[in-house]
Amino acid sequence: MNCIIIDDEETARVIIEQLCDQVENLYVIESFPNAIQAIKFLNKNDIDLIFLDIHMPDFTGFDFIQTLKNPPKIILTTSDKNFALEAFEYDCIVDYVVKPITLTRFTKSIEKVKVFVNTKPVVKQREITASENTISDTDLYVNIDRRLIKINFLSIAIIEAKGDYIQIKTDTKNYTVHSTLKKIQEKLPDHLFLKVHRSYIINTKKIIDIEDNSVLIGKDVIPVSRSNRPELMKRLNLL
Q1: CB-based burial of residue 238 (10 Å sphere; 0-12 exposed, 13-18 middle, 19+ buried)?
Q2: What is the pLDDT of residues 90-129, one digit of tens each?
Q3: Does a cis peptide bond (omega within 30 degrees of 0) precede residue 33?
């Protein structure tokens, strides 16, 4: 699901983005400090879900909803418990979550949204499933500057951990992503990629040369740890 966040508090937006990162197949496309900016975005883009604060300067969450002709599903995120009854007068509102938001509570809200998604006609659902399967077999999606970037698996040569970030090196471009090596590895096809060092994952099809405890990929010499070397040799049929 593609989603956006609308909240005038920067800290609240960051927290929701972090929660979204922990839910599989939930992507934050944009994040807005006010409803006016979000309306301009929605006039040109389709979204599955909105995380929406109620109390914002000049234009409240309810004011915002009333401007939408065909609103997507909405989860209200607020510090105020007093608007729950009013909230559910709107068919588009799926849940009402009071801050601070825990991961457990957040996950329950996402499950409610999935119920609505799963009630689509069977034929349409099959079309979506087929499309998603095709994408997951060929592409990696990463969040960079609140944009969802598609990277073809076959173009990826090296993924390197750098503190709280990773660098993805492809045939044509490098991408820096706020993530962990472990999290990215879970999204990669095993037949192409192998973790050869605590800081490196490589595309084994891109190996040019092997020497001692390192491999050459392009112009980069990548270290191979002693514990990972047997698996690499096995993958390359060298054992």
Answers
A1: exposed
A2: 989 999 999 999 999 999 999 999 887 654 443 333 333 3
A3: no
